[in-house]
Design a protein that fits this description.
23 helices, 18% strand, 25 strands, globular, six-stranded mixed β-sheet, alpha/beta
């Protein structure tokens, strides 16, 4: 048994989404403000902390409809014979979460209470958790009572002061619920019909409607079925140097919250639940109990001797008298006291192996680095979750006393939010590799399938995403609001295991490529795919020096090469990620039975070997067509806020020789395009390698065709990475001009990101042609 997927509606910016869960690990990734935290909060509020809902958890755009419900109630209440309204008018605005379980035939005994019909034979089972009015009559009456009281008070006040304009609470249903939400609302559960379960369309989920008059379930549908544990992002770890004043109003609260995350506090919790020999004793505790009793007797004797003089002195005061009880001293040693102090957990600073006369050099846990404190604390928490589920030690006796069958819930769901906090990159990768193994490290778990563990993690770390397979990743994408319906930005979720369909060469290439780099693509606002190392080094410099607004955005630059950039097309389209592809013209000429790379010229039947240009954008092969193509033909628009643009070398006018006329120059790569745009700089620059060869060629040749051929030959064996590094090192780089095709591409990208920041689009602006199978 495992959770197949959940569908969330009307919760914050999650208007209607489906999140599919992997059988073991599921990772939430996406750019900032894309909905990852909202999804984790929804899971926590619906499944763990059910009494913590606030009005802010309703989708913001729904408040217009909710306030209209309130105003309609006011109007209807004045009509003769008016009665309480139905709950159905709230159905489309209430926060809900549908949990769909995949259940095998032999697991039916766990889910009998969830069966929709007696004909169910296994497969999907659904439960809807909905945050709704507990009693619509009470909400109706109390809301109108509050509104009438406010109205009557204002009327009385206006009789004394006709110019009074004040409005009293509650002006709207929103204001009423801001104060009274949890008095009138609660989570209720309903069974769903598996035959009516429909898939999402364009990333939008379509949960089924509940039948009219359906009854909710009296008990928690997941009690005894799912154990749920969570680790929040705010773990309260603090540095030892933080001397927060005790006079701060929240200092005690912060200390209490932080203390529970210290390892010593977790050890005490674990000890109490699973190890304490003074509770629910069994034969394995006898040695410890005997040792405690012996220590207590020995300590009592020591105290009697130590206090003997003091007690004799008391007797000199005629106490105790004949009828007074005699004073004695006895101790009670509790093992927990040994852990109940700030230095219960210590770290050895220097290895003292072999030295028996001196004590080891140790420091309390708070003096260790925050990264290791966080790692150890999280891993130990996972161990506590696992052993609590498996009822290790004393927990088993407590569980058997409360239940009749003593069985474990068959499913363990663990939620971890942003585990990367305070962890450097290598430790982040260690954690994500080992976390699931820790949760399964028990004799009854491991690779056995009768008990299931599902780990859900949200992260902003490309290092953590780097360690997970594509099948584990769920990408959250921001969706802009529609201006004409007064909506707000929302989110959709992409299951990356479905990006490439059945595994093939493309999926293997992309997976291996991202494994050799980083998964920044999943957290970026936009991507730039470049041809080679020179572009990868110089384009960030161009952005930093010339595109200030672009420099403030989170952009990932990936060196992918012209022969492979098109392989990322399925991934980029599913992510809906604004992308600029900076690639090479890569001209070639037919030679016998093969095509040979050549410096581009016009009207010679040359073609491009670049697969991006041939198969993606603009889907053209002939060099003559590509050279004269307009800017709009180099852009593929998928929706108003997702486009892909390709930039490749375009004709420029160059003055050769120094006093000659300007002539058209055709470049084939980034390097010769850079030279053509900076002829004066390369004519006088001093350098080595390609810089020297280009400078000599400019001095030697008087036509752009000859210069182009010379640079083409130099680039065959030239070190392009060294060329870029040399340009960055030289002081002359301050006057370096950006090649025209790159400047046009970066300008387009900056404009796209500025439009996207508004996160609002007008339907009339949607292009007439949008590629099928992409986002709306």
């Amino acid at each position: 048994m495992h959770i197949k997927f959940v569908e969330i509606q009307n919760f914050r910016k999650l208007k209607s989404i489906r999140i599919e869960f992997a059988k073991e690990k599921t990772l939430f990734v996406g750019a900032n403000n894309s909905g990852k935290t909202s999804a984790m909060e929804a899971l926590c509020l619906f499944l763990v902390d059910k009494n913590r809902f606030e009005t802010h958890d309703f989708t913001l755009s729904n408040w217009r409809q909710i306030n209209k419900i309130g105003s309609d109630w006011e109007s209807q209440s004045t009509l003769p014979g008016s009665k309480s309204p139905p709950l159905s008018e709230w159905e489309y605005v209430l926060p809900t979460m549908d949990v769909w379980l995949q259940v095998a035939d032999n697991e039916i005994h766990h889910v009998i209470h969830l069966l929709p019909t007696l004909d169910w034979k296994g497969g999907l089972l659904g439960v809807r958790l909905r945050f709704e009015p507990k009693n619509i009559d009470d909400l109706y009456k109390d809301y109108l009572l509050a509104k009438n009281a406010a109205r009557e008070t204002i009327q009385v006040a206006k009789q004394k002061n006709s110019e009074l304009t004040i409005e009293l609470w509650p002006r709207t249903m929103r204001e009423f619920l801001d104060k009274r939400l949890n008095n009138f609302f609660a989570i209720r559960a309903y069974t769903l019909d598996p035959t009516k379960c429909a898939g999402p369309q364009n990333g939008i989920a379509h949960p089924q409607l509940l039948p009219i008059g359906v009854e909710y379930m009296d008990d928690d549908p997941f009690r005894g079925l799912i154990r749920i544990d969570d680790i929040t992002a705010q773990r309260g770890l603090s540095d030892v140097s933080n001397k927060r004043s005790q006079s701060d109003s929240d200092s005690q609260q912060n200390r209490d919250y932080g203390d529970k995350w210290k390892l010593s506090a977790q050890l005490r919790e674990y000890y109490t639940k699973h190890l304490d020999p003074s509770e629910l004793q069994d034969p394995s505790d006898l040695d410890a109990l005997q040792a405690i009793d012996s220590a207590q007797c020995s300590f009592d004797q020591k105290l009697q001797v130590g206090f003997s003089k003091a007690l004799l002195e008391l007797e000199g005061l005629n106490y105790p008298g004949i009828s007074d009880p005699k004073l004695t001293i006895s101790t009670k040693i509790r093992p927990m006291d040994g852990l109940n102090h700030p230095s219960a957990v210590q770290f050895e600073v220097i290895d003292q192996s072999g030295e028996t006369r001196e004590r080891p050099l140790r420091l309390p846990e708070q003096y260790n680095g925050l990264g290791y404190q966080n790692l150890i604390s999280m891993v130990f928490k996972l161990m506590i979750f696992r052993d609590g589920w498996m009822q290790v030690g004393k927990a088993a006796k407590r569980a058997s006393a409360k239940t009749t069958n003593g069985s474990f819930p068959p499913l363990h769901l663990v939620l971890v939010e942003e585990p990367e906090a305070h962890l450097h990159a290598q430790v982040q990768q260690v954690f994500i590799r080992k976390a699931y193994d820790v949760l399964r490290n028990h004799d009854d778990l491991g690779n056995k399938t009768n008990l299931t563990t599902q780990l859900i993690i949200s992260t902003h770390s490309s290092h953590i995403a780097h360690e997970c397979e594509f099948s584990c990743l769920r990408y959250f994408r921001r969706v802009p609001a529609q201006k004409n319906v007064n909506d707000v930005p929302t989110s959709t979720v992409v299951n990356l295991s479905e990006v490439f369909g059945k595994e093939g060469k493309t999926q293997r290439f992309v997976t291996r490529y991202l494994k050799t780099t980083h998964c920044d693509l999943f957290f970026a606002d936009a991507a730039i795919l470049v041809e080679g190392p020179a572009e990868r080094m110089l384009i960030p410099y161009f952005i930093r020096e010339h595109f200030n607004k672009l420099n403030q955005s989170y952009i990932t630059v990936l060196e992918i090469g012209g022969s492979h950039a098109h392989r990322l097309r399925p991934l980029i389209q599913h992510l809906g990620l604004i992308t600029l592809v900076i690639t090479d013209l890569d001209a070639a000429k037919k030679n016998a039975n093969s095509w040979q790379a050549i410096q581009p010229t016009r009207e010679e039947g040359l073609i491009t070997r670049n697969m991006v240009l041939r198969s993606w954008i603009p889907k053209k092969r002939k060099i003559d067509e590509l050279l004269d193509l307009d800017k709009t033909s180099k852009i593929k628009v998928y929706d108003p806020f997702f486009s892909v643009c390709v930039s490749y070398q375009c004709p420029v006018n160059v003055q050769l020789p120094e006093n000659g006329d300007k002539k058209e120059a055709l470049s084939n790569t980034f390097e010769d395009a850079l030279v053509y745009e900076n002829i004066e700089l390369f004519r006088s620059i001093n350098g080595s390698g390609l810089i020297k060869k280009f400078s000599e060629a400019i001095a030697e040749y008087s036509t752009t065709v000859e210069l182009g051929k010379a640079m083409f030959e130099a680039l065959k064996n030239g070190n392009k990475a060294k060329f870029a590094l040399d340009l960055l090192y030289l002081q002359e780089n301050k006057t370096l001009k950006i090649p025209t095709y790159i400047r046009e591409g970066l300008t387009w990208l900056q404009d796209q990101l500025q439009r996207k920041q508004k996160e609002v689009w007008i339907p009339s602006e949607i292009p007439s042609t949008v590629e099928e199978g992409t986002h709306t």
